[in-house]
Design brief:
Blueprint lengths: L13 E4 L4 H12 L5 E4 L4 H8 L3 E4 L12 E4 L8 H9 L3 E3 H9 L3 E6 L4 H14 L5 E3 L11 E2 L5 E5 L14 E4 L13 H13 L6 E5 L3 H10 L6 E6 L6 E9 L2 E8 L7 E6 L4 H16 L4 H7 L9 E8 L2 E6 L4 H14 L5 E5 L4 H15 L4 E4 L16 H9 L4 E3 L6 H8 L5 E5 L7 H10 L4
Parallel strand pairs: 1-2, 1-4, 2-3, 4-5, 6-9, 6-10, 7-9, 10-11, 11-12, 12-13, 17-21, 18-19, 18-21, 19-20
Antiparallel strand pairs: 7-8, 13-14, 14-15, 16-17
Helix pairs in contact: 1-4, 5-8, 5-9, 6-7, 10-11, 11-12, 13-14
Family: Belongs to the MurCDEF family.
Organism: Streptomyces rugosispiralis
Catalytic activity: UDP-N-acetyl-alpha-D-muramate + L-alanine + ATP = UDP-N-acetyl-alpha-D-muramoyl-L-alanine + ADP + phosphate + H(+)
């Protein structure tokens, strides 16, 4: 096992702190598949941890200095790991190199033809669409995604092909570590307020990412999104950079002519610029909503940038049927569909609600929303409430803190009050355990329940289904 790069010499015996996380587990999986002796720890057991163990990884539950093997060559961390973590402290005391997840991923991509997918929203979906469609064409890419496709541990794979598809996270500027042949930027908005104070800082960060594209490489970027257009103006004309745009705008290199919804799928028609062959193509996207259709067009454009024939890639995109937590159907009980959404930014919330509304038929859309991070709620709580007004009724939980400490005065009330001002039917619920009973009393046959947020609200889906199925309902 010998991945090249600045971190390569330390990745033969890596120990991952927080190995069960979406981003960390993907890197650990690829390393294990390449022959590294992987170990790690996490706060709880999970199907993802089980999948890593099946690949030969040693995973400890709970954090302890004793988890760190005597022959560990590195400790891999993400930005979520605090400095006082016992394993991190022990590694530093023993002089073991500490490697950020992004450096490990950059080392894995070295020697391949990387596609790095960035943007405020849609990264996981677009990365997944590319991975699945390229596999369907027999190109066998390697990939690391921030979510599971169809089974625990399917967030990553080591393929025999030359293409490596990776989700590029802007939240902590770690995407500055990558040197892609093709960079995708889906959209540019202000988020991650603990790390970015203004849109100028966001633009500067994305500009740096674009500057990392390999000479002769390509930037694939939205022609429709205002933030993406501003970034294109800033980076346009850069020597050695090919810029390919996509979207409904008449100037787009891959122009979207139509997006026709068909229940929970869409039919998309695009026209390619003469430089890309000039063809008109119609293909199916097997998930609902304009937002996801545009993600598929971004994937198509990126494939064209790597000379994957668009006429072959377009139908292959239909083989993507979804990723966990991205409008994932959890089940149906008592005539009520329960769907899970990772949406936590106002733009994502609105996009998923509009997509679901298009496929919900005559039933109502009921949302269980859990805000994610105090900093995000402080800055965007009003916009979250406005977006929730698109639902027929919402239940709003307390803020999921993740890596943050509470901020005085910042609560879910910021969202609830904003939603109420827009005429929304919204209920505050401070006890997660009460949600299944509450939803069972609200939902009627034909309705659709959406559990929404980046925290542990996802765990409520099965509980809601079980309550709907109970004889008491």
């Amino acid at each position: 096992m010998a991945p090249a790069g600045t971190a390569s010499d330390t990745l033969d015996r890596p120990h991952f702190i927080g190995i069960g996380g979406a981003g960390m587990s993907g890197v650990a999986k690829v390393l294990a598949m390449r022959g590294a002796r992987v170990s790690g720890s996490d706060t709880k057991d999970s199907p993802i941890v089980g999948a890593l163990r099946e690949l030969g990884a040693t995973v400890h539950i709970g954090h302890s200095a004793g988890n760190l093997a005597a022959d560990a060559t590195s400790v891999v961390v993400s930005s979520a790991i605090r400095d006082d973590n016992l394993e991190l402290v022990t590694a530093r005391e023993r002089g073991i190199p500490v490697v950020h997840r992004s450096d490990a991923l950059a080392a894995l991509m070295d020697g391949s033809r990387p596609i790095a997918v960035a943007g405020t929203h849609g990264k996981t979906t677009t990365t997944s669409m590319l991975a699945v469609s390229l596999r369907t064409l027999g190109l066998d890419p390697s990939y690391v995604i921030g979510g599971d496709l169809d089974a625990p541990g399917s967030s990553a794979a080591h393929g025999a092909g030359e293409i490596f598809v990776a989700e590029a996270d802007e939240s902590d500027r770690s995407f500055h570590k990558y040197a892609p042949e093709v960079a995708i930027i889906l959209n540019v908005e202000l988020d991650h307020h603990a790390n970015y104070a203004s849109m100028d800082e966001i633009y500067e960060s994305f500009d740096t990412f674009v500057g990392r594209v390999r000479p002769g490489g390509a930037l694939v970027i939205s022609a429709d999104h205002p933030g993406a257009r501003e970034l294109t103006a800033r980076v346009g004309g850069r020597d050695g950079l090919r810029v390919l745009t996509y979207g409904a705008d008449a100037s787009a290199d891959v122009r979207v002519l139509a997006i026709e919804p068909h229940g929970l799928t869409s039919e998309v028609t695009v026209r390619l610029a003469e430089s890309l062959g000039g063809a008109e193509l119609t293909f199916t996207v097997s998930v609902p909503g304009r937002h996801y259709a545009l993600n598929a067009v971004a994937a198509l454009t990126a494939g064209a940038a790597l000379d994957v024939p668009a006429a072959e890639l377009a139908p292959a995109l239909a083989s993507y049927t979804g990723v966990k937590r991205r409008l994932q159907l959890k089940g149906v009980a008592a005539g009520v569909q329960v769907i899970d959404s990772y949406a936590h930014h106002p733009t994502e919330i609105a996009a998923d609600l509009e997509a679901i509304r298009g496929g919900a038929g005559e039933g109502r859309v009921l949302v269980v929303f859990q805000p994610h991070l105090f900093s995000r709620t402080q800055e965007l709580g009003t916009e979250m409430g406005e977006a929730l007004a698109l639902a027929d009724a919402s239940v709003v939980l307390d803020i999921y803190p993740a890596r943050e400490d509470p901020v005085p005065g910042v609560t879910s009330a910021l969202i609830i009050d904003a939603a109420a001002r827009h005429g929304a039917d919204v209920t505050a619920e401070h006890d997660r355990r009460a949600v299944p009973e509450l939803i069972a009393g609200m939902a009627k046959p034909g309705d659709l329940v959406l559990t929404m947020g980046a925290g542990d609200v996802t765990d409520l889906g099965p509980e809601i289904l079980a309550r709907l199925q109970s004889p008491e309902n």
